[in-house]
Amino acid sequence: MTTDGAVTSGSSSPQLSSSGESLSIGKLTADRPSQLICTAACCQQSLALQQSPYRGYVPEDFPTRQLGDRSFLSTWLQKFPWLTYCTSRRAAFCHFCRISADIQVVGKEKPDRAFQKSGFSNWKKAIEKFNAHEKSSSHIAAMKFVMSRSNTSSESVTQQLITQLASDQQRRRSNMLTVLSSIRYLARQGLALQGSPQTEGNLIQLLELRAEDRPELKSFIRNKRYISPEIVNELLKLMSHQILRDSLEEISAARYFGIIVDETKDEAGKEQLCICIRWVDKNFGVHEDPVGLYNVSATTGENIYQVLQDVLIRLGLPMSRCHGQGYDGASNMSGKHSGVAKRICDNIGLALYVHCFAHSLNLALQDTTKMVDLVGDALTTVQLLYNLIARNSVQRVERLRTIVSNLQSASGGPNNKAVECSGKVIKPLCPTRWTVREKAIAAVVSKYEAILHMTDELKSLQGDARTEALGLHCTMLRFETYLGLKISLEIFSVTENLSRQLQTKGIDARTVRVAVQTCENYLKNLRSNKHFDRLYSEALSWSQDLTEPPRLPRTRKPP
Question: Looking at residue 32, what is its pLDDT?
């Protein structure tokens, strides 16, 4: 046999089929009038085999060819599954490239004629050429073509459509699960899903980021139908309903529960009622699960009671199993005659009402500090400093940071007694929660000297800012201001720790009593001469270079 369609003579040589015959290659059939096919067993088996692994005819011994003693090695057939060997030509071929020789298969590189038609026999560079051919685009394109034709040619058109539909459904299902996991992540982190424009939203940007690892996701998110605001909101609602159903199953299994209710206004000015269920599992673990925010038309005790009844009925929780209720001290909630607590107790005698301990502590601290001028004036100074420096002026905040940094450098490090640069430079006081004011007071105390320099600079301004800066500077030069801040910091630090402990989910009545008693004893000790002398000495030592010397109040002469 010779290459390129030449026919050899002799009985021992394999015969070639005529150019006008129809060629059947396994399950593939095509007319190739320009190709003469060898009828030897090795070539016929090489072309007919369509199942993996692709092996041609494997003789026991491979004869050498022309140069030296080199020959084809049988191990190459194991290493390169696409390789076949022709005993008549004593050359190697590529199984996929031979089948697709006369078919225009698209590839970036031109097919290698040696592996496709003439045969490869340069055994010295066999491994190098085999590796190069295996990575070539023409070989990959031929392999994909043969595999696709081999897998689908035996199926009917209907079966092929069904298979394709199932594959598309599986791909879309996988992509939809990716969208769901992205929505769940953003909802868990409390981040907005949509943006303006929509392409700049967190959900779209997260999906585009994940599409870098999953290319098939790019085409899926181009179809805006699956990630439209309506679909996303519906998915969020389904997730919330499923979470609520799971929580209600556990609450129902625990049988008895308590309710915690509070109302607040949202940004739109609508009154929202927050309802939380407190329950204990069989392992005595305490759980507090919010069940939703509900819009109320009025905040009267009767209206809130009706809304609460309606919510519990919809959740499938009988009011008779409610053995506890906790609210703030507002009259509509805890009123003795028409409050929500009174209405529930009239129907269910076991629903014990408890005024929120954290709210009680907040009210007690608020009333107490108003009665002590030293502490009240210190808190007022903290808020006024925030209004002057940090409320509406970024430049003043940056200037204060620069002063703090300069003072640190001058003192040789951040351990200066009145200069620290960690955290915010200055913070506002919380207007409603008195037990979370420690950080605002500590920021002023730790940067007292820097704030003095800042107010001194602001005296050069014009208008109301100059008047405020002048007044605050004179106030901060007084020793009583620094002493009031130190005492306030001592009081609010211990009360803030108590407030955090009271709001712990798993706290019990005994632990609450111990914590309250400990805080009460500590505050009583602060009123002793020993502890007051300690605070006074510390304040005097820290402020000796910052404020004026302390002055005792002038005593009146007896008449």
Answer: 36
